[in-house]
Amino acid sequence: MKIKNFEIKYPIIQGGMGVGISWDQLAGTVSKEGGLGVISGIGTGYYEHKKYAYKLRKGKPAETINFYSKDALTKIIERARKICGDKPLACNVLYAINDYGRVVKDACEAGINAIITGAGLPTNMPEFTKDFPNVALIPIVSSARALKLICKKWKRYNKLPDAVIVEGPLSGGHQGFSYENCSKEEFQLENIVPKVLEELKTWGKNIPLFAAGGIWGKKDIDKFIDMGCTGVQMGTRFIGTHECDASPNFKQTIIDSKAEDIQLMSSPVGLPARGVVTNLQKMIENHIAPKVACVSNCIVPCHRGVEAKKVGYCIADRLGAAYEGDKETGLFFSGSNGYRVNKLISVKELIAKLIKGE
């Protein structure tokens, strides 16, 4: 399987999960074992007990420059490289974040092979990678219309995506759909894939397409490859690995979850998000959740805490708490199949299961 000028042995992209779910250990090992490991560029200021967040306030990385720490991201990529060698590595950078362009450049300067971007339409993504022509650009879309708009805007850079990820409404974290559309049949992954494939054909280039959102095993992988996809992206199942960078409490929260625990919830990003309902949601309902006071200034749509106050929590603080293992006030994102994770296994064993169907 080829993307731009690098090859991947297996048709599996590991989803980028932040804060601190997919950093050097998980991404490096996935790439080593033949998939495409993806480092999350989100919340790197929390890495190594906030060692590279040079200014803290209330124990949290202060301001955007520290929440998205360049030094931490560089160190994460460097350590992942020690695990996977010269095999390709990607970095996921959400389009909705503050300092998007700077974080993309930081990843490129650190030697990343591909940038993956969702949570918005990255219409100017090539602007930030023009000095790095060998870096593959991979947008995440939820519709053929979104892909068409991206390709049209990228024409001014004389650029097309090097691959595309189409994500349905069963993924963990933020969705590219309204609450109502997340449950409608027409917006389910198997129904949007054919339309995105048709749109790709109009651009006259053999652009690889990866299906994402609710992917669990070999049966799902084969299904979407038979539909015309090159492969899949999957995140949640990789949480159930020894190498996943998440805290033991995060992994246990996923393992302990039941199907009914995994629900859509409000987010300061302005999009519905899927995760495990825990004590945090009960605290929000009872108006006893930790007070919202914007310290990290992480995402544009939140407007410096305005939207966070409306939904009752700060996403930077709560994802950071989950990374640190706080089961009381942490936010634990999960795809719809998270409840099927029942034990920890190695990345090597998981990829073998995905390829062989064991």
How many whole angstroms does the radius of gyration measure?
Answer: 19 Å
The overall number of domains is: 2
Largest sheet: 8 strands, parallel
Q: Let me know the CATH homologous superfamily of the largest domain.
A: Aldolase class I
Q: Unreliable stretches, pLDDT < 50, 5 or more residues? A: none
Structural class: alpha/beta
Helical residue percent? Answer: 25-40%
**What is the general shape?**
globular
Taking strands numbered 1, 2, ... along the chain, how are they ordered across the largest sheet? 3-13-12-10-9-8-7-4
Q: Got a strand count?
A: 16
Any idea what the CATH architecture of the largest domain is?
Alpha-Beta Barrel
Task: State the helix count.
Answer: 15
Ends apart, CA distance between termini: 22 Å
CATH top level of the largest domain is: Alpha Beta
CATH topology of the largest domain: TIM Barrel
Beta-strand percentage range: 5-15%
Secondary structure layout:
Blueprint (H helix, E strand, L loop, with lengths): L1 E2 L2 E2 L4 E3 L9 H9 L4 E4 L6 H4 L5 E2 L2 E2 L1 H5 L2 H15 L4 E4 L7 H10 L4 E4 L18 E6 L2 H11 L9 E4 L5 E2 L4 H4 L6 H13 L7 E4 L5 H9 L4 E4 L1 H4 L8 H9 L5 E4 L7 E4 L2 H7 L20 H6 L3 H9 L8 E2 L13 H10 L2
Parallel strand pairs: 3-13, 4-7, 7-8, 8-9, 9-10, 10-12, 12-13
Antiparallel strand pairs: 1-2, 5-6, 11-15, 14-15, 15-16
Helix pairs in contact: 1-4, 4-5, 6-8
